[in-house]
Write a structure and sequence with these properties.
Blueprint: H1 18-34, H2 36-43, H3 49-70, H4 79-102, H5 108-115, H6 118-129, H7 136-157, H8 165-191, H9 193-218, H10 225-252, H11 255-259, H12 265-277, H13 283-304
Helix pairs in contact: 1-10, 1-12, 2-5, 2-10, 2-12, 3-4, 3-9, 3-10, 4-8, 4-9, 5-12, 5-13, 6-8, 6-13, 7-13, 8-9, 9-10
Length: about 325
């Protein structure tokens, strides 16, 4: 058969490669998450931080319960429930509540810079949880990134010794989310990616529903339509549908490349804070954000691509 016959003609695939598809899904997820900090800042203008942190989880939990029921997912077994409790404590309870309270007093751009530590913190939590042995460069760069974020917080709070309580809440939110992401990443291998997040949401529903009811009883909500819209986004997109896109991207892979897309999330959040909220971006914010993001990027890359071991000749 001749090489130029129709039977041997190479036809370019219409569907993009899996690598490109995974990257695009990951980008959609990160873009969805990048509005979380600015929209939380909008919502706290008319709603109590307790209602925002707990209520958004209630909305997402209802959607998660429907998704699990419609797809007839199997129930977690034994110790998986305890591990789901760790995930829920980190990403369903800890991060939303701590960031909501913090953003009542600090600008969204400020919060985005401190939260930019999250990729490096997640990598650190994954290293400790998985008992990995990364090179010393990983620990050095991670430490520099943490120091840069703390130095930025000090500079914005009035100097050394004047760290704002909101910054402590943001740092606590980073630690909580990092632990939740690391444990969730391991558990996703057993339950599935979006299923892990959904079960964590359902597990936390009784607690978060109780907190939401308590908040509404103490401080009846009186928000504008824009503030309610921001709250709806936090519950529907930030805590639910965003995870579908993000975890689909990770599942398609390559995971190492897709996971690094998260490094652009703080950049987008800072941009949205300026464009949507009209926040002035100082040089301190820009330099601090770049320093933290660069260090986080190097830390993630070093962990994913450790130097080859030396061979004894």
């Amino acid at each position: 058969m001749r090489d130029n016959s129709s039977a041997t003609t190479l036809i370019r695939p219409v569907i993009p490669s899996s690598s490109a598809t995974g990257l695009w899904w990951g980008l959609v997820g990160v873009a969805a998450f990048s509005f979380t900090v600015p929209f939380t800042r909008v919502a706290v203008g008319g709603l109590s931080p307790l209602l925002i942190g707990s209520g958004r989880a209630v909305v997402a939990s209802a959607l998660a319960a429907c998704a699990l029921a419609l797809t007839r997912q199997r129930l977690p077994q034994g110790k998986q429930w305890a591990r789901l409790a760790v995930v829920a404590a980190g990403i369903v309870v800890g991060f939303p509540l701590l960031t909501s309270f913090a953003l009542t007093t600090v600008p969204a751009s400020h919060g985005a810079v401190v939260i930019a530590l999250l990729p490096a913190a997640t990598a650190t939590a994954a290293v400790l949880r998985g008992r990995e042995h990364p090179p010393i460069a990983f620990w050095l760069v991670t430490a520099v990134g943490a120091i840069a974020a703390i130095a930025f917080a000090f500079a914005q709070s009035g100097g050394l010794g004047q760290l704002n309580w909101a910054d402590l809440l943001l740092l606590g939110a980073v630690i909580a989310a990092a632990i939740g992401y690391a444990e969730g990443g391991l558990l996703a291998r057993e339950l599935g990616a979006w299923q892990t997040v959904s079960w964590a949401l359902v597990l936390a529903l009784p607690l978060m529903a109780g907190l939401a009811a308590l908040s509404m009883a103490q401080h009846p909500p009186s928000a504008s339509p824009v503030q309610w819209a921001a709250f709806a986004y936090l519950g529907i997109v930030s805590m639910f549908f965003g995870f579908f896109a993000w975890y689909r991207g990770l599942a398609i892979g390559p995971m190492a490349k897709v996971s690094q897309i998260q490094l652009i999330q703080p950049v987008l959040s800072i941009c949205w804070a300026g464009l949507l909220l009209g926040e002035a971006l100082s040089w301190t914010t820009i330099i601090g954000g770049l320093a933290v993001i660069v260090c986080a990027g190097i830390a993630v890359r070093v962990r994913l691509n450790p130097p080859p071991a030396k061979q004894n000749l």
